Amino acid sequence: MASPTLLTPSSKFTPLLPPFKPKPASAAIPSHQPPQEPILRRQFLCLSTTTATATALSLTSLLAVTPAFAASDEEYVKETEDVINKVRSTINMDKNDPNVAAAVADLRQTSNSWVAKYRREKALLGRASFRDIYSALNAVSGHYISFGPTAPLPAKRKARILEEMDTAEKALLRGR
């Protein structure tokens, strides 16, 4: 509880800052300029939106953004064959091989870049080779992410992945 000496009716409030006294309106505006109407919030927002839109439109026309397209069909075939060979060599490695972890890391990097490059290509999404490779890469990556880079693939999963690789390779040779 507070002591009675601290709160007395005779104590005065002393402000820390002097009171603010606004200048009269006639003194605020110089006599040589006519008084201006204040800009309303609605007018300000409309003007700023118009300016921002015009600036954005002029910048987009200057920059001329073009979508990133994957390379030619020959490059897709070559890179897909490289991925197929890398998957086969990695999953057929002996589990006691000391280079398994490095090979799995290299395979993950290669598969991530392949998927990132070709996943958004509408022309490739319907291809049988793309579908099979994507499915196999998903299975391989999921296994190594879940069980670690040195865990061997189960026989059923390995057989399914190799079958998808064979199917994808045949589809690539047929142009599909």
UniProtKB/TrEMBL annotation:
The UniProt keyword set, sorted, is:
Membrane, Thylakoid
Q: Which InterPro entries match?
A: PSII_Psb27, PSII_Psb27_sf
Q: Which GO cellular component does the record give, naming just one?
A: chloroplast thylakoid lumen
Where does the record say this protein resides?
Answer: Membrane; Thylakoid
For the biological process aspect of GO, one term held by this record is: photosystem II repair
PANTHER family the UniProt entry points to: PHOTOSYSTEM II REPAIR PROTEIN PSB27-H1, CHLOROPLASTIC
Q: Tell me what this protein is called.
A: Uncharacterized protein
Q: Give the originating organism.
A: Rubroshorea leprosula
